[in-house]
Design brief:
alpha+beta; outer membrane lipoprotein receptor (LolB), chain A; 13-stranded mixed β-sheet; three-stranded mixed β-sheet; 8 helices
C-alpha cells in the first residue's frame, strides 16, 4: 500500500467524500471500478424474479467484542503512544523498519511522527505464503524515511524531511469534524459497533482470548473505498483497556504487508507538557509550505437537493445502511448470477438512475448479483476462512 495514501486516510479519511454524510453521490464517488463485470447487463439478458436477500451477521462473540470496544473507545478523549512498523515488500524481498510516536484527540485530530529504525531483530526469512524465500536468503532490511503526518480537523499536513516540504490538504467544510473513526482505517481508535458490522466482514482470529487479556479480530473490507487500500486486516487489542496492541494490513495486490506494533498507549494530560497545549500545529523552519486546493463536494443540485449517485459495483449492505440512515426506503432484488466471486451481492442495476434528484422518503430499488455455481467454485484469493 502506498504510504502517502495510507496516512491520508488513516489520519482523517476525509480527502475523498466521507461515507456517512449524505449527499449520496459523494458517498459513492469513490466506488468500485467500472469493470466489465460491474456493468449493467443488456436488456436481452434473462434474470430471475427479484427476492429479498440476507447476509449472515457476525457471531455473538464478535458482536459483543464490537459493543465493548465501542463503549471503551468512547471514553478515549486523548491518547498517546509509541509505534514500530515493519513493512514487507514481497516483490523485492525488502523489509523497511520505522518507529515513532502517535497522538490522538477525539473526534478528528491525530498525529504520527515517523523516523528510520534498524533494530537487532533478525530479518524475515519466509514469504507471504509462509514458505522459505528463494535461495534461503532473508529479506534485505532497510530503514524507512523520516515523515510526519497530522490531521488538525480542518486540514491534513504531511511533512517530508528529506524534501524539506510541508504539504497541506484542506478538508472540505461539509465533512469537517466527522472523526478519524470514519476513515478507512479506524482500528486505532475504535468505531460504532453497527457501523463496523456494515463496513467490514469480521471474525475472531486464532489468537482471540479475551479471558486471557487479548482480542484478535480479522477484517475484510465490504466497501470499495476500503478495498482499494487494503484487502485484509488483523487487529490485536488489550482485552481490558481496548487499547491497540498491533495491526497487520495486506495491500490489495497481496504484495505488501505492513505490521504496526503499539506500546506505552495511555491517556495522560500530555498535551500541555510536550506541545504547549497543541500538538497538531506544525512549524518547521526552512521548509517549503505547499497548500493544495480542497476537493469539492459532488452529487448535489444547485438548490442543495442531493442527486442519486451511481451505485453500480457497490456492496448492498453498506449502501442500504447509508441510504436508510439518510431517510430513503431501499428495496433489494436478487438478480442474475455473478460473473465472478467478487461480484456476489454487489449492485448491477439501480432505480432511479444516477443524477435523479432525491427526496426524503423516496423508494430506491437495487438489483444484486446472486451466487452462482461458477462464482462459488472460484473463491477470491486471500479470502479463505
Amino acid at each position: 500500500m502506498n504510504r502517502r495514501r495510507f496516512f491520508l486516510f488513516c489520519l482523517a479519511g476525509t480527502l475523498s467524500p466521507c461515507l456517512l454524510a449524505l449527499q449520496p453521490a459523494s458517498l459513492f464517488a469513490q466506488g468500485a471500478p467500472r469493470t466489465a463485470q460491474a456493468r449493467q447487463p443488456t436488456a436481452r439478458a434473462r434474470r430471475p424474479v427479484g427476492q429479498p436477500l440476507r447476509v449472515k451477521p457476525p457471531t455473538p462473540e464478535v458482536r459483543k467484542i464490537l459493543q465493548d470496544w465501542e463503549y471503551a473507545s468512547g471514553k478515549f478523549k486523548k491518547l498517546q503512544g509509541e509505534h514500530h512498523r515493519w513493512e514487507y515488500d514481497f516483490v523485492f524481498n525488502l523489509e523497511r523498519r520505522t518507529k515513532g510516536n502517535f497522538w490522538f484527540e477525539s473526534p478528528d485530530k491525530g498525529r504520527m511522527d515517523i523516523e528510520p529504525w534498524t533494530d537487532t531483530k533478525k530479518p524475515r526469512t519466509r514469504g507471504k505464503n509462509g514458505k522459505p524465500l528463494p535461495g534461503g536468503k532473508p529479506f534485505k532490511v532497510q530503514p524507512g524515511k523520516e515523515e510526519q503526518w497530522v490531521s488538525n480537523g480542518k486540514e491534513i499536513i504531511m511533512v517530508d524531511a528529506a524534501k524539506k516540504t510541508i504539504e497541506v490538504f484542506p478538508i472540505p467544510k461539509e465533512i469537517q469534524g466527522q472523526g478519524i473513526t470514519e476513515s478507512p482505517l479506524p482500528f486505532l481508535f475504535g468505531m460504532k459497533a453497527k457501523k463496523a458490522e456494515v463496513r467490514y466482514d469480521l471474525s475472531a482470529g486464532p489468537h482471540n482470548n479475551p479471558a486471557g487479556g487479548r482480542i484478535h479480530l480479522i477484517a475484510f473490507p465490504r466497501l470499495a473505498k476500503d478495498a482499494q487500500n487494503w484487502s485484509r486486516a488483523e487487529v490485536m487489542l488489550d482485552a481490558k483497556t481496548f487499547y491497540p496492541q498491533a495491526i497487520k494490513l495486506i495491500d490489495p495486490a497481496g504484495t505488501t504487508e505492513s505490521v504496526y506494533q503499539f506500546s506505552g498507549v495511555r491517556q495522560p494530560g500530555f498535551f500541555a507538557k510536550q506541545f504547549g497545549g497543541n500538538p497538531f500545529v506544525i512549524k518547521r523552519a526552512g521548509f517549503k509550505r505547499i497548500v493544495h486546493q480542497a476537493p469539492k463536494a459532488r452529487g448535489v443540485a444547485p438548490n442543495g437537493q442531493p442527486k442519486m449517485p451511481r451505485l453500480i459495483g457497490q456492496h448492498w449492505k453498506t449502501t442500504k445502511a447509508i441510504l436508510e440512515k439518510a431517510g430513503y426506503q431501499v428495496k433489494l432484488k436478487q438478480g442474475a448470477p455473478a460473473p465472478q466471486q467478487k461480484d456476489v451481492y454487489r449492485i448491477y442495476r439501480q432505480s432511479p438512475q444516477p443524477g435523479t434528484p432525491l427526496k426524503k422518503g423516496m423508494s430506491i430499488v437495487l438489483t444484486l448479483y446472486n451466487k452462482s455455481t461458477r462464482a462459488a467454485a472460484k473463491p477470491a484469493a486471500g479470502r479463505t476462512r
